[in-house]
Structures are given as structure tokens and as C-alpha cells.
Design a protein that fits this description.
Number of strands: 30
Radius of gyration: 31 Å
Helix content: 25-40%
Length: 712
């Protein structure tokens, strides 16, 4: 076997032997065998069963040495008093051996002591942690961060999907707060980044290759300029194999989603002519919304509903509808869903509640089984329905919405769905779709992302989610979508206690939200901190052109706003451009002597519209400037709408010439600034009243997407 290739057979033999004994952890010698098989550097070591063995091994390995207890029942050796380091003589080794055994017997009298590990002392270096855990959402993930005794105090750790690539690993080294330590500080040498990144890759590959490995914990790993070495290895096992989830090909998803979002015919099961019924609301919205396709009400007790012929059963409906919308009690859904399956209808939109969300898991499992048997994709249950505006489809019992645009919005919660609707209406945000996901018994975010990624009407996707059924499928769908259009995610539950009881440092550190945060970033997704931010990002991102570089310039009529805007720029990972002398002189030509050039450019508050226009023109004309942040201060000299009109006019003029730069604005003033902001937004300038944070946050989101999409 090529020495650079991992020896999987050796690892398999170790794991099989341990699992056959019913063990959930490897001993230190077994861990050494596994790490050796994957080229993971660990110190020279051997197992001593007696004091004399320990002395002889220390002589052979060479002083100084460390001694560590070897027991299947003792996972945290330090806590049991089972570790001694820096031993430099026969006498120290003898004393340490006896002390360790005595301590462990007192700590756990039932623990089996297989011996004491005699280990070469690792050369000094920066202590880091590398480990893997099996996450319920994303599967195998790899962690990297500061190690040693402070690991769970500092919690300076970052995560990626396993197996990780070299680029993933290098980004992890730069992704911790203490990244500067690795580069060398206070005269210290930088660590060998390639060796450290290579170790991350090897550990992640080990975990990915063997489902039986629940957790790997290398802590501490000593990293220095000459290489890396793992001083302690802990490997936990599991006999559980995750249940396989049914998956669909991209082509299958696009086909079924195409019929769901662009149906030619819709059947409404439980349609009603009685106001106040969900089945009546769905019918009214379909009809009043102008849906051009066929609408077939299904109700065994009616012949006609809202002027449409009603059918006793979906089996009687002519043709083969693309969608069946359910508006019947939960207990009646399985029988009706079987008929939908036999009819060959590919999509069921399940509005009723009363399934897993209320404890009726068996009922939900039953409809999932029926859907799989007949090839029916299920949206819901427990949803408000969905809107597909470009096809004049409003299949919901909530208020209609018909402003067409480029934003696709989804929510797991009905209440959040209605907040989305109200926001869209108030801000006049055009949408391509609004979709409720509810219990996500089948269709979920990755199905929708796959569709919206290809939908020519969708320019930006924004998703509220409480969980992901299959994190890896979502990441795959996001990675395919992000290069084409932004994906914004609001993940609920970010402050929940996520750390589970775990047998390793890595497991304890892998809180749910910490993992979500890093993996979503790895997928190129823009994570919104709250509902309003998600909606504002979704509204703003399609409006802003993609920046060509990182130089941001602030032009403001108020010094105080300039300071706050500068803070917001730093907070959002952007950088203020260092203004070169010639550009500084050019700005100074337009502003009064008591104004301030540099960056921010402070034109002062009493300036006429011509000063605003001249400086904005200069900012747009200079190719070294890549984005503008405008701070407006309401004065009678330059009223809000005058500022808005001149800014929109100048931006439009430059865009007509091919100069596409993102421009955002913060307007401080009386209530007139609200109308001015709406005017600017509608004309391609993202503007907000009474805030310096929101416009810069929107610009920051655009930059994060541009980086993730490889456009910067």
C-alpha cells in the first residue's frame, strides 16, 4: 500500500474488535494504531503493565516522558488523576506509575486498568484542538480551535463538514478569534500551517470513512514551526447506523417542483362554498387571484362551489391535476391522499394541522408512507399554503398577495409567513413566491432551493427555518444556488443550549448553533440575526449591484452620522478606503474649508444640493471606489426629496453608462425622510430612515454573498 494512503484495513480491525466487546471507546494503544494508519503524528509510546516495564520503556523512548492511565472506563484521564508529565528519571517514573494507579482505583474502583501508557514528551508548541463529532443535522463534522486546558472556557472553535478540503482546513485556521497566535505573536514563530491543515484533513477523512466513529478528539495538538503532533487521542464509537432518508435526483426535484410552482390544474380537496371555512378561503384566493389554470373543487356534499363544478372524489376530476390542495381534517387526509396517488397527481399541499406538531407522529408517518408509495411529494402538513405570484397562484387561506418580483420567501412557521406577507405589502417588495413548509414531512428547504436556484423569476431566496432535516442536502443545494443568487437564512433557536452531554471536548463544544453558523457560512449562505434583517436583506440584495472590490467610501452631511456609519462598516466586515492624495484633493474642491475630506468625506450639513451631487458624482466616477455609503442630514437647504431625486438621478445616469456600484444611504431627519427612502429604494439605492446600521448591514450582506459566489 502507498504510504501516503490511509490503511483502512488496520482501522477496520481495531474498530471491529472493540465493537465486538461492546465497547464505546478505544484505549490509548488502539487510538495510536488508528492514528498511525492515517498518518496522524503522535508521540512514540508503549504500554507498561508493571513499574519495571514503565522504567524500561522510558529508557527506550528517552526522557522526558509522560505517563497516562489506560482503561476502557476512564475517558477523561486528567480528571481521574491518571496523567503525569515531564518525568526525567527512573525514580520519577516509578513514583508516577504507582500514584496514577492509586488515583484511578480511588476514582473508579470498578474501572479495568490495562496498564500505563509511557509516552514521549511532545516538543513545545501552540496547543490546539482537532476533533470530529457526528451531528444530527449535518453528519460528520470536523472542529478546530485552541486546545489544552482552556478549550472549554474559551470555546474558540470553528467547524466544517467532513471530509474537509485543504482550503476548508486553512479557512478554519483563519476562522478562530485567536488566529493571530498561529501566525506568530510577540516574536514567536508561526506554526507550520500546511502541516496543521493537513492534520485537519486527515482527521476529518478518518471520521468520514468510518460511520462507527462517533467522535475523535485530539487535544492537545502541539503545533510549531517544525510540524504538528497530537499528544492525546480519544476515539468514541457507536453501533447505531443512521436511518437512510429517501432522496430524489435533481431532475426529479425540478420536475415535481415545476408542476407545483407552475400548475396548469389544481384540485381543492375540502373545497367549500361557506365563508369562514379554510376550503372556501383557498377557493376564493385561487379564483380572485386570477389563476389562469383549471380549478377543481372536491366535496362529496356539493355539486357547485363558487360557480365551479364540484366533484365527489378527486378520482372524478377530469385530466391529471398538477397539485391537490388539502383543506380537510387531519384524520381524513390518508384516505384522500391515497386517491390522489392513484389519480397520478404529483404534489399534495397539506394545509391541515393535527400531525407531528401535536404529537400525532404515527399519522404523519402514515401519510409520508403513502406519498412514497405513490410518488406524491408532500408540502406540509400544518401550513398556510403557498403563493406563486408569476403564475397568479394564491393557494392559501390567508390574505392574497400579487406584487410580482424577484424575492422568494419561505417559512417553517405560519406566523412568520404572515409577517413576511405584511412586510412585503408595506415595503412593496415584489416576490416570486411565498411558501409555507410547516412540519416538512417531505418537501423541505433543499427542494425549494433547487427550484429557486433555476427559477428565472427569482433573484434572491430568503428562508426562515427552525431545523434542517438533512443538513448536507441543504448545503449541496445552497452551494449550487449561491454562485447564481443570494440565499439568506434566519435560523431560529440560535440561543438554545446546544451543547449535549458528550464524552469529549469536541462534542461538548459542538453546540447546535455554533455548528449551524459555521456550516451555513461554509455553504455561502448569508445568515440573518433576526426576522427584520432577513426580510430587509431579501428586499435589498436584488436592488444592489455586485461590488467589484472592497473600497468603501462614506459621504455624509453630518459628522456624527459619519462616525456611526464607520463603526457599522467595521462591524459588517467591510473596510473604509484609504483615500489617496489626488482623490482627497478632488473631494476638497467641492466641500467648504471647515468640512473634512479623508474617509468619511464630511461635506457638512448646510451645503446645497450641488455639493451632494458633485461629491456623489466623484465617488461614482473614480474607479478606485467600489461602493458608496451616503449619510444625509435633513435641512431646509437640501430637503429630503431633493436629496433623493438628485441621488437617484445621478446613480441612474452612471448605471446607464455601465458604472454599476452599490450605493446605500442613511437619512436622518423629520418624517419626510421616510418618503425619500422609499423613493430611493425603488430606484436602486438602498436607503433607510433613522438608522446608520441597516443600510451598511445590507451592503455587508451583499459583500458576503459576492465573496461566497466568487465574484470578488
Amino acid at each position: 500500500m502507498d504510504s501516503t494512503e490511509p490503511n483502512q484495513q488496520a482501522v477496520r480491525a481495531v474498530l471491529d474488535a472493540a465493537l465486538a466487546e461492546g465497547r464505546t471507546a478505544l484505549t490509548a494503544p488502539e487510538g495510536k494504531a488508528v492514528t498511525d494508519a492515517y498518518g496522524i503524528p503522535t508521540p512514540a509510546e508503549a504500554l507498561a503493565e508493571t513499574v519495571d516495564d514503565a522504567v524500561a520503556l522510558a529508557d527506550r523512548i528517552g526522557f522526558p516522558v509522560a505517563l497516562k492511565i489506560v482503561s476502557p472506563e476512564i475517558l477523561h484521564k486528567t480528571e481521574a488523576g491518571g496523567v503525569r508529565t515531564g518525568l526525567n528519571s527512573h525514580a520519577e517514573v516509578r513514583g508516577a506509575f504507582l500514584s496514577i494507579v492509586t488515583n484511578v482505583r480511588a476514582y473508579d474502583p470498578k474501572a479495568r486498568i490495562l496498564g500505563v501508557q509511557v509516552q514521549q514528551m511532545v516538543p513545545a508548541g501552540t496547543e490546539v484542538l482537532i476533533g470530529t463529532v457526528t451531528d444530527p443535522t449535518f453528519g460528520k463534522i470536523v472542529a478546530f480551535g485552541l486546545g489544552g486546558v482552556l478549550v472549554e472556557v474559551l470555546k474558540d472553535v470553528t467547524f466544517r463538514l467532513a471530509p474537509a478540503t485543504r482550503d476548508d482546513a486553512l479557512s478554519m485556521l483563519d476562522g478562530i478569534r485567536a488566529a493571530e497566535i498561529l501566525r506568530g505573536v510577540r516574536g514567536g514563530a508561526a506554526v507550520d500551517r500546511e502541516a496543521l491543515a493537513g492534520l485537519v484533513v486527515k482527521v476529518s477523512q478518518l471520521a468520514a470513512d468510518f460511520p462507527e466513529i462517533a467522535e475523535v478528539d485530539l487535544n492537545p495538538v502541539f503545533a510549531s514551526e517544525s510540524g504538528v503532533m497530537a499528544a492525546d487521542v480519544r476515539i468514541l464509537l457507536t453501533g447505531e447506523v443512521p436511518a437512510a432518508r429517501r432522496t430524489y435526483t435533481r431532475e426529479e426535484i425540478l420536475t415535481s417542483m415545476g408542476r407545483l410552482m407552475k400548475p396548469a390544474s389544481v384540485a381543492v380537496i375540502g373545497a367549500s362554498g361557506e365563508p369562514g371555512k379554510i376550503g372556501n378561503s383557498v377557493m376564493r384566493n385561487l379564483i380572485d387571484g386570477g389563476f389562469p389554470g383549471e380549478i377543481h373543487p372536491v366535496n362529496p356534499k356539493a355539486d357547485d362551489i363558487l360557480g365551479r363544478k364540484a366533484y365527489k372524489s378527486v378520482m372524478d376530476v377530469p385530466g391529471e391535476p398538477d397539485v391537490a390542495v388539502f383543506a380537510i381534517p387531519a384524520k381524513l387526509v390518508p384516505a384522500a391522499l391515497e386517491e390522489v396517488g392513484r389519480k397520478g397527481i404529483p404534489n399534495a399541499v397539506l394545509i391541515p394541522s393535527g400531525f407531528a406538531e401535536s404529537g400525532e407522529h404515527e399519522l404523519q408517518d402514515r401519510i409520508v408512507s403513502i406519498g412514497e408509495e405513490f410518488g406524491v411529494r408532500l408540502l406540509g402538513p400544518n401550513i398556510y399554503g403557498y403563493y406563486s405570484t408569476w403564475h397568479d397562484l394564491c393557494a392559501t387561506f390567508c390574505t392574497p398577495y400579487d406584487v410580482k418580483g424577484g424575492v422568494a420567501l419561505t417559512s417553517q412557521s405560519g406566523g412568520i409567513g404572515m409577517a413576511i406577507l405584511g412586510f412585503a405589502r408595506t415595503t412593496r417588495t415584489g416576490v416570486s413566491a411565498i411558501v409555507g413548509l410547516g412540519n416538512k414531512s417531505d418537501l423541505d428547504e433543499d427542494d425549494l432551493l433547487t427550484w429557486f436556484g433555476e427559477d428565472p423569476h427569482t433573484e434572491c431566496v430568503a428562508m426562515h427555518l427552525e431545523d434542517l432535516k438533512d443538513g448536507r442536502a441543504f448545503v449541496d443545494a445552497a452551494r449550487a444556488t449561491v454562485p447564481k443568487k443570494p440565499v439568506v437564512v434566519l435560523k431560529a433557536g440560535r440561543t438554545a443550549a446546544g451543547a449535549r452531554a458528550a464524552g469529549s471536548h469536541t462534542g461538548a463544544l459542538a453546540g447546535d448553533d455554533a455548528v449551524y453558523d459555521d456550516i451555513l457560512r461554509q455553504a455561502g449562505v448569508i445568515r440573518a440575526p433576526g426576522l427584520n434583517e432577513m426580510l430587509e436583506y431579501a428586499r435589498a440584495l436584488p436592488v444592489l449591484p455586485t461590488p467589484r472590490g472592497g473600497n468603501v467610501v462614506v459621504i455624509t452631511g453630518a459628522g456624527g452620522s459619519g462616525v456611526l456609519l464607520s463603526d457599522a462598516i467595521v462591524d459588517n466586515g467591510l473596510s473604509l478606503m484609504e483615500i489617496p492624495p489626488d482623490l482627497d484633493a478632488a473631494f476638497r474642491a467641492f466641500i467648504p474649508p471647515f468640512g473634512s475630506a479623508g474617509n468619511p468625506v464630511d461635506i457638512t450639513g448646510g451645503e446645497p444640493p450641488s455639493t451632494y451631487e458633485a461629491t456623489i458624482r466623484l465617488g461614482l466616477a473614480d474607479p478606485r471606489i467600489h461602493a458608496l455609503v451616503l449619510g444625509y442630514w435633513h435641512t431646509i437647504v437640501t430637503p429630503p426629496m431633493v436629496f433623493a431625486e438628485l441621488t437617484a438621478r445621478v446613480v441612474a445616469e452612471f448605471r446607464a453608462q455601465g458604472v454599476q456600484k452599490p450605493v446605500v444611504a442613511s437619512l436622518a431627519g423629520d418624517v419626510e425622510v421616510e418618503e425619500a427612502c422609499q423613493y430611493l429604494f425603488e430606484r436602486g439605492v438602498v436607503a433607510y430612515p433613522y438608522t446608520t446600521e441597516k443600510p451598511v448591514a445590507a451592503l455587508g450582506a451583499k459583500y458576503r454573498w459576492a465573496r461566497a459566489a466568487g465574484l470578488l
